[in-house]
Amino acid sequence: MINLKKVLFTALLATSSLFIACSSDDDSGSEPQVIDNSPKFFVGVEGTDGKDVLAPAESLTEGVITPINNGIVQPAWMTFVNLGDAIVAQGFSSDNEMKLYKKVNGELQNTDNLFTTLAPFAMADAGDNNFIAVASAREGNSDREIYLIDKSSFAITKTVQTKIDEITAEDLIAFPTGVAVNGNKLFITYYFISTGTGGSSAAIAKEAKIAVYSYPELNFEKIITDDRSPSLGVYAGTGALIKADNGDLYTYSSASSICGFIPAPASPSSILRIKNGTSDFDTSYHFDFQTVSGGYKINDMLYAGNGKAIVRMFQEPPVVPQEYFWAAYAPTIDQNVAALTLGVVDLEAKTVTPIDGIPAHGGAWGIANLVRDGKVYINISHSNEAAVYVIDPETATAEKGATIQGNYAKGIFYLD
Amino acid sequence: MILFTKKTCFVFIAFFWSVLLHSQNTVSGIILDTSSTPLVGATITVKELKSAGSVTDFNGKYQLTLPDGTYTISISYIGFKTFNTTIHLKDGEQRTLNATLKEDLNQLSDVVIISKSASQITREQAYAVQSISTEDLKNTSVDLSQILNTSSGVNVRQAGGLGSDTQLSLNGLSGNQVRIFIDGVPMDYFGSSLSLNNFPANLVSSIDTFKGVVPIHLSSDALGGAINIVTNKTAKDFLDASYTYGSFNTHRAAVNGQYRDEQSGFMVRLKSFYNYSDNNYKNRVKLFDIDSGKEDDFYTEVERFHDAYESKMLWLETGLVKTKNIDELIIGVLYSDNYKEIQQNPSALGTSKTPFGEVTSEDEKWIGNLSFKKNNLFTENLNLSSYFTVVNAKETYTDIGNDRYFWDGTFEEDVYIGRGELDTNKSLFELDRLNLLANVNTEYQITPHHNIAVNYSLNQVRLEGEDLFSDAKNAQFGEPSTVRKQVAGFSYTNAAFDQKLKTTAFIKNYFYNLKAYTANQFTGDNREEFTDNQTHFGYGIASTYFFSGNAQVKLSFEKTYRLPEAVELFGDGLSIFPAIDLRPEESNNFNLGSRVDFNLGATSSHELKTDLNLFLRDSKNFIRLERRGARGFYQNQQSVLTKGIDFGIQYNYDKHYFLSVNGTYLDQRNNNDSAKGQGGQEDFQNGQRIPNQPYLFGSAIATYRTKELFNSHDSFSVSLINNYTHEFSFNYENTGDSNKPIIPSQFTNDFELVYGLYNGKYNLSFNVVNVFDKLVYDNLNQQKAGRAFYIKARYFIN
User: Fold this and answer.
1) pLDDT digits (tens, 9 = 90+) for B266-293
2) Which of A315, B397, B486, B792 is least surrounded by Cβ atoms within 10 Å, i.e. has the fewest?
């Protein structure tokens, strides 16, 4: 029990800043013409000393990925985000800092630094020349901030102050869990936290809610609500809003106390859809994940291509003991109590298939992953091991790839 | 725990009466050299009564209290021939014994910079001990941390200006692993109002540094040694007042005095100080544009504007000292308070781009102390000393500002009203701390060759606190937590081969009881009571052999435990989180040392004194402060092996030119050779240096000192003090291969002039710190002050 608490403590300690790594939508297949022997894989690793390093790696399928005498030391506990040809690392050093890494002459270099007033809790590549970060104070009924960041100059070009949503009578305010841009709309998923006390536990999570803003103006437009599902996304997750090949957005709810919804909401862990070109929930679509899977709940999700998503999931008992609250945020959890597994979801068909070959493992702040050439490379870690596993979403099978000489991977990237 | 029941009170009263009825004689006098100059710090020993003895004061005077009997009195001073005589004492006699010592050209003299007499005695103990006499330093504006930083094996890292945290390491063990005592009372219980950083040198007569092995009379749990600050204990009347003014609007005043009635032994003593500084020194920082978030590609020089510090202390003691029947019975009360502004997150690496403007920490303390000493209790050669201390402290941490500050000192209203400056939520945290400390030490000399001692110490802390804004702190501190530590020790000391071989063997038993609460650090959820009760057994042996009066080897070993401190268990209320389930740390400490004094040349105009120590610390569950992001917490490191060497050389020519050099090298590494690290995975840091720990450092002091420069009663000295610390890594050295945070090498030079008149009655000193205005950093790369000037005036009379 003490071990678990220690793990949880370390895990929660790290949440003073946050982790959102987007599933990358790499266009696959094109081979480089010039022979470049420099490493193309980069893995954000929390070392066994608790320090973050952005480490180059030759391969994700074999050998070791190591922060030992290798890689760029990070100034703090960081969150890593893919920006196409760049990587953003965000964390609280002496200030809320974002570091931009790009390949220069075959070598990864820190090319720019940016500082924000508030700590971002949801970040996403907007798909154009912009990067979006949604930042929030943890306490008090004050505005959140949406930063529109120009990728090339790595400067904030617009800051919008917004409550996102609030229930003033109950002293509740929105806490962002995910952000995505689709066409001329920006969507923010959130749950409500109490304004009065510390922490980020969801106080009210009974309905799915998304705030819709115009893009790139970032004017608030509306709140959309769906009572078939509880609140969307999880604290510091990475997959609250994923985009399918056809442009449809999918979003999930966790409904789980081990993911920080205390008490767990009554409605089931679900997947909802916003069809491409619309800004409302698709009333014809509700994937009751909890019922279909036979009692599993979603911890987080990523888009694997071809209409399929990978979900990290677990079976939660009806009454969760206190010491397991937030237990999904423990990448080095004792192997004996690790409970998370993976499944492949067919989003259209609303089916889930458990993935063979993945050990029960611990969760983290989102899922460190890379989707490339039809395969999904994903971090799997617990007290005795950290490794990249290679998943084939078509067959729902997995193989162990490179091992990680650290606590766990926080972001996995490919930069040509 | 109830400390005083009616029964124990009765026992104490009966005990004091029995003591008072015992007859005592007094021997006093003055020791001069052949030119009738008083010898300061000459040693008076009693051959038959090892525990008795004295040291001459500023005027060459001394006093001894002895029971009836016949004694061989020996009066010695390094560089002089020893004077021996036999006296008979009975019926409360008051005997005067004056002596004139003749210079001994064959004997090596003591070099002045460090140690004389009392210090020398300490230095000659079997323990790996170094003693610094502060006599020469009292007129300077240095504080204890600066004095200690120039002694071998010791490295003091200060976070910022006056009043900021200091981190002392001794042979590689640091922070709480090294216990600091004031007259045998653990200093940490005086809290932040009394620290190495603000304690003036005027109050101190010597500083004894015990490396690795700690004698049982400093009964506490120390992992890597202890430092005992010995305050002025003279039985004479004196008044010592000083005032320092310097850069950054620094004011420091100290007034100390004592009155003692020779007839009755009644004594009143005052120690007091006042410290204030704006600490508004300059920092270099790369600022950023608030709108675009872009970082400047140049440094801006900014002035610290919220770093002021103020502290006061008043300590009044009264009682009986050196009466016929009692050696010491003192009762005292101490009041102190402390106010510190906090300019930036204390745990952040480097200088923050966003300064704080309203975060403060304050504390207020009332301390009551009672001490009792009696030699020849009940029977001859049975000596008892004891103290009881009660500390009632209130600490307040305030982070409730609604404004957002910029480095130019301007501010605007923060739209994010929920957050604090330091933390994601506001905090107004009040902590009540009640400490009880007690120590009883008895020593019995069976024969001049056999001595035994028994010691018991109790150290209990009760904490209870409240935060108006933080559920997490309320969960932790809402109900009282208690930590009780007890150490019982027994030692036996043997002197053999005509006192050439001295050996002390000891055992210590440690008792640890903790009742506290664990809770989620952010939310206060999952609150649970946590208790921990442990007992540990430690032991050690220290031995020294004298080849001659000038050469000595020392060998010592201790198996020691250290029980976690309140700050380690409960955090600091600011940026250090609680870690209630810390385990006690343990260590096997080995020391091999030598002390050799040389005489160079035909006359004693060249004097050379050397100390060399080799040490090994094999530590388990090593408690280490780990910094992550802008937070810190203490954790147990499974195994740490420290090997090291330190040396000190002091040379003096003609008693006018002094040179002192010391250096330390540490090889301190993670020694976790078991296959699994703390997370269960392989420990990839095995064999690496422990991070954020200086491992190569030293100092050199050159002094010229003379008397009768302009008149017959003045004195003058000029010193250049140099300190070097080699660069060290903030992380494990093998973490990553680029952008590694390194605390750079630092070489600083201080300059000091002291001029005294009327044999030290009036003194003036001028001090330049960091003469070349170099960039200096603390252990977190937060920038410290550049060049600073101080001037100090001191009046001393006795």
Assistant:
1) 999 998 989 999 999 999 999 999 899 9
2) A315
| Average pLDDT over all residues of chain B | 82
Round to whole Å and give the CA distance between A386 and B116: 60
- For B290-323, what is the HEC assignment? CCCCEECCCCEEEECCCCCEEEEEEEEEEEEECC
Give the list of residues 6+ apart from residue B505 with CB closer than 8 angstroms, or none: B491, B492, B539, B540, B541
Cα–Cα distance, A147 to B467 (Å, whole number): 33
Sign of the alpha-carbon torsion through B143, B149, B154, B155: positive
Residues B38 and A15: their CA atoms lie apart, in Å, by 67
CA distance B357 to chain A (A): 15
Nearest to A142 among B353, B417, B521 (CB): B417
Per domain, the residue ranges of chain A are 4-414
Question: Which of B72, B246, B216, B229 shows the shortest CA–CA distance to B792?
Answer: B246
Contact A139 B295 (CB under 8 A): no
Residue B291 CB neighbours (<10 A) = 11
CB count within 10 Å of CB B709 equals 11
Residue in B789, B796, B719 with CA at minimum distance from that of residue B754? B719
Query: CA-CA distance, B258 to B349, in Å (whole number)?
Result: 46
B432 touches B393 (CB < 8 A): yes
DSSP letter, residue B689 = B
* A291-to-A234, A271, A294 alpha-carbon distances in Å: 20, 12, 5
Q: Say what percent of chain B tops pLDDT 90.
A: 33
Which helix (H) or strand (E) element contains residue B570?
helix B566-570
Token pair, residue B444, equals 């019995």
Q: What is the pLDDT of residues B708-767, one digit of tens each?
A: 888 888 889 899 989 999 999 999 999 999 999 999 999 999 998 989 898 878 989 899
**Residue B8: other Cβ atoms inside 10 A:** 11
Judging contacts by C-beta atoms under 8 Å, the chain B residues touching residue A114 are 288, 293-295
- The more confident residue out of B639 and B380 is B639
Supply B103's token pair: 């210079």
Interface of B with A in 319-378 (CB under 8 A): 344-345, 348-354
Interface of B with A in 251-310 (CB under 8 A): 288, 290-295
Answer yes or no: are the C-beta atoms of A414 and A26 closer than 8 Å: yes
pTM: 0.82
Which is higher by pLDDT, A247 or A325? Answer: A247
Cβ contact A139–B425 (<8 Å):
yes
**Best CA proximity match to A271, nearest among A297, A246, A294, A295:** A297
- The span from the first CA to the last CA of chain B, in angstroms, equals 43
Find, among B207, B222, B228, B202, the residue nearest to B148 by Cα: B207
DSSP-derived pairing of the beta strands B225-231 and B179-182: parallel
**In angstroms, what CA-CA distances link B161 with B158, B198, B230, B346, B438?**
8, 11, 25, 13, 33
Q: Six-digit token pair at A22?
A: 């987007």
Tokens of A103: 């390949």
Distance in Å from the first CA to the final CA of chain A: 45
Nearest residue to B225 (alpha-carbon basis) of B298, B173, B266, B271? B173
Which residues in chain B have Cβ-Cβ distances shorter than 8 Å to A110?
739
Q: Which residue from B50, B472, B72 is spatially nearest to A12, judged by alpha carbons?
A: B472
Q: Are strands A185-194 and A397-404 parallel, antiparallel or unpaired?
A: unpaired
CATH superfamily of the domain spanning A4-414 = Prolyl oligopeptidase, N-terminal domain (2.130.10.120)
Hey, are the CB atoms on B526 and A142 less than 8 Å from each other?
no
Is there a contact between A199 and B626 if contact means CB atoms under 8 Å apart? no
Tokens (6 digits) for B415: 């739209």
Q: Does B436 touch chain A (CB under 8 A)?
A: no
- Give the residue ranges of DSSP H helices in B245-395: none
Cα B245 to chain centroid distance, Å, stands at: 24
